[in-house]
Design goal:
This protein has ten helices and two strands. It is mostly helical. The structure holds zinc ion (ZN). Zinc ion (ZN) binds next to helix 7. The site of zinc ion has 4 residues, from helix 7.
């Protein structure tokens, strides 16, 4: 039970997610200010870690998120670069609009729900075998990352991006990307606090199956269920006084969501 063979990736107890967010904000700020341009290489890891006063593993977690969101691209042996490739709307413009016009989180969420449910439906119509294979892989990676919320979220984000691509409509995909990026902070918290990543993985698998069997209404429905559940989890978590850390809380205390397989320690790989 007390096996600890898996790497202990977070050296900063209690601060990991905060630090990850710090990296994300820092890199976003560098891009927004024009200090980094598309195609530019990121400063060396060691340098960035020192600048931000964080460990390299935290830095990597942040870079992993930004890569999953398509902001950064790692090239083997060459370093990490700011993406210059696919069209994406500037997600900060939504934040600015939101600040100006008082967009509310539920409105942002509703927009995501409307767009992404339709995107899933289109994906079920148009997904190629390649898209379907990619989705299968991301679902498998989610199951493999049940004990690692940070890693899990990376595959979660990739799963949704693949569906966006599979929809065959780059405009809808870009809109979705923009909104998702804005909901990123909330999702990060949600996944951090989720007691049952396994249930989440199962919902992704249902979406995947509907797309694989080219069943648009089912894909739409499954996506709606997934997003609504995520919203409920988020709302529940916002009542939690403090941010939970990598160590799951005692399931007996407070969270009645759905029991975690083993108290105190996340499940190992599912069979
Ligand atoms: Zn998801």
């Amino acid at each position: 039970m007390a096996r600890r063979t898996k790497q202990q990736s977070s050296e900063e107890p209690g601060g990991h997610s905060q630090l990850t967010l710090q990296v994300v904000d820092h890199v976003r700020a560098l891009i927004a200010s024009g200090a980094l341009h598309p195609g530019d290489r990121l400063p060396p890891e060691r340098e960035l870690a020192r600048e931000l006063k964080i460990s390299r593993s935290s830095l990597r977690a942040g870079i992993g998120f930004l890569s999953a969101m398509g902001v950064l691209k790692s090239r083997h042996g060459a370093g990490t670069f700011v993406s210059s490739g696919p069209p994406a709307l500037d997600s900060s413009s939504l934040s600015v609009l939101g600040a100006l016009h008082g967009f509310l989180p539920w409105q942002m969420f509703e927009a995501r729900l409307v767009i992404e449910a339709s995107v899933a439906s289109l994906a079920a119509e148009r997904a190629t075998d390649e898209h379907i294979a990619e989705l299968a892989e991301e679902v498998a990676e989610m199951y493999a990352a049940l004990a690692d919320p940070h890693e899990y979220l990376i595959h979660d984000v990739r799963f949704h991006r693949t569906i966006a691509r599979a929809s065959g409509n780059p405009i809808l995909a870009a809109l979705m990307e923009t909104i998702s990026a804005n909901l990123y902070d909330g999702r990060r918290l949600t996944v951090e606090n989720t007691q049952d990543l396994k249930q989440s993985a199962e919902m992704h698998r249902e979406i995947y199956r509907a797309i694989r069997s080219h069943n648009p209404p089912q894909a739409k429905l499954s996506m709606e269920q997934h997003l609504n559940l995520a919203r409920m989890a988020q709302a529940a978590e916002s009542n939690t006084p403090q941010t939970l850390t990598d160590t799951p809380a005692d399931p007996a205390a407070g969270h009645t969501a759905l029991a975690t397989p083993s108290p105190g320690r996340p499940a190992t790989r599912p069979s």
